[in-house]
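Standup notes
- HV: blocked on the assembly model, inputs below
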Amino acid sequence: MAEEVKKPEEVKKPRKPLDPNSAKYKLGKIASDAFATAIEAKKQGKPVAWVSSNFPVEIPETLGLATAYPENQAAGIAARGAGERMCEVAEADGYSNDICAYARISLAYAKLKECPEQDVAMPDVLLCCNNICNCMIKWYENLSQELNIPMIMLDIPFNPDYEVSDAEVAYVTGQFWDAVHQLEDLFGLKWDDDRFKEVTGFSCRSSRAWLEATAQAKYTPSPFNGFDLLNHMAVMVTARGKEEAGEAMETLLKEYKENHEKGESTFRVEEKHRVMFEGIACWPYLRVTSRGLKDRGINMVTTIYADAFGFDYNSFDEMIRAYCSVPNAINLEKSRDKRVKLCKDNNVEGLLVHTNRSCKLWSGFMAEMSRQIGKECNIPVTSFDGDQADPRNFSEAQYDTRVQGLYEIMESNKEAKEA
Amino acid sequence: MITLGIDIGSTTSKCVLMKDGSEILTYSLRIGGLGTEGPEEALEELWNKTEYTPDQVDRTIVTGYGRNKYEGADGEVSELTCHALGGRFVFPEMRTLIDIGGQDAKIISLSDSGRMSNFVMNDKCAAGTGRFLDVMANILRMDIDELDECAAKSENPASISSTCTVFAESEVISQLANGVSRPDLVAGICESVASRVSALARRAGVVPQVCMSGGVAKNNAVRNALAKSLETEIDTDPMAQYFGAIGAALYGYRQLQKNKDNK
């Protein structure tokens, strides 16, 4: 029989200033520096690119082009409570509220050119890759029109097959070099093979450490609270090709390993259950969604959303294949298998799915995919409505009922197993 | 042992008093759920109907959308677990429960042994819930309880194509203006709810015995349309609206038993 919810005792430690040698400090600094560096570059008259999150970071990093990431900016704006205000600006200009809220926030920012919750340097060029979603194309085309700046498109279409074909690799490779040449011509930048080799080394170093860190959830209890990953992944989105990112990710991995050895965790309450979270975080309600789990002793130990930004490869060909294999560009069967592996590797007892109004691509096939995952892993599945950045699409009471229902099934399953 | 289950929903409050987890002593229901006087009124009615008194209650469990706000209980449990327990109490072979309440619809799957194994709920949209029927009854100037009898007179149910409650409201008004009969409109409205819920049920997987709870379970037109769409019999019971409160009282009893066993 399931127990009613009793809030587990939280071990609260007094807040100390962050140790500059800690992963949290290092990662926080890299994430905030990512915005500041581009703003400084702009002041110095250097070009700035706005880049979609799964665009090959190796291109701007090798060319020394300053970057800002609109998705990352929109998430920050939403988490700090300004999502609705910015969405309304875009809606007043005629953008439907059915469009991705990140796009609406970004288009609003392009108009206002300021938002105290997260300012960025205005761009001179747009680097768009549709492996994350197809809405990205129209979003960036409109930015290009509104700001009268060039847009460089890297087309990595949704792959209906299980494997990446040689033809797709050739198609993307051609575009990769075309993007490089366009940027060289636009801004007088120079491609350097040695620098490229160095950047790919940094990117892989960051990715390997990041993926190994997230994989530490294989231990029970997990040495970390899965919601930490949602913060730390900002570095993987914006700075994975930088040397300091690799160093910070290795520190994170070291801390998680030490936590496991000492029996400690950043999940500050007893870990009663472990779930996988599916979908983009519900940034406007990050605290609510996190507490709804933590108060019941449920640790969200894994999410493909975090692993999506780790790109590990050993050659140029493998790099292209990695960019063709990001979670939103692969078919249902491959998506399912990746998630099933995460569930099994991390001893997950339940699946919590965010049906994200903004992201039709990610949420559209979730009903069927989560059914298949639940069946394959023999775990209960529940979903809640929300949005990655627009706060008007979430009900706390509905979220709470669904999470409690999931908790009660997991408790009941545990009792049946123990009996 | 005496246990009390309180189910505070979005539109009604229900109370059930049970003895030893096997006998329903009395029960009550009042219109008005979360944020109203409904819970207190339902409790008052309950105590007026029985010789038992509040101090004889060994454990009180609250469920429903108002569970987190109610302070007079010993514990709170989700309505999902409670409906599963209450439904199984009335129908010992039940494997699938379709609950259509005021603001949500849920399909609960139970294992062979009666444990809740999974559930599917509606999204935020009000289509497929009791609220949809409330809105439509209001347009037609009918009482919600009259819908069932009215639908039974239908010869050619109207097609309500909009799933959005607001759009469906306009659609019903235009069909009324075009001379569609009330029975045909009401039957069409009930089929619309059934269509929405049967899609949810298919997602969860329908395993007989299939039962129905919640206020909408009283509506034969919705239940029959659901049964037809799912190609299965759907059982209900006059106590179907109390499944949540029964489940809460049962949950309280099981907790007491468990505490006793652990001593």
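- HV (later): unblocked. Residues 2-88+241-262 of chain B form a domain with the Nucleotidyltransferase; domain 5 fold (CATH 3.30.420.40). The mean pLDDT of chain B is 91.
- Next: hand off to the docking folks.
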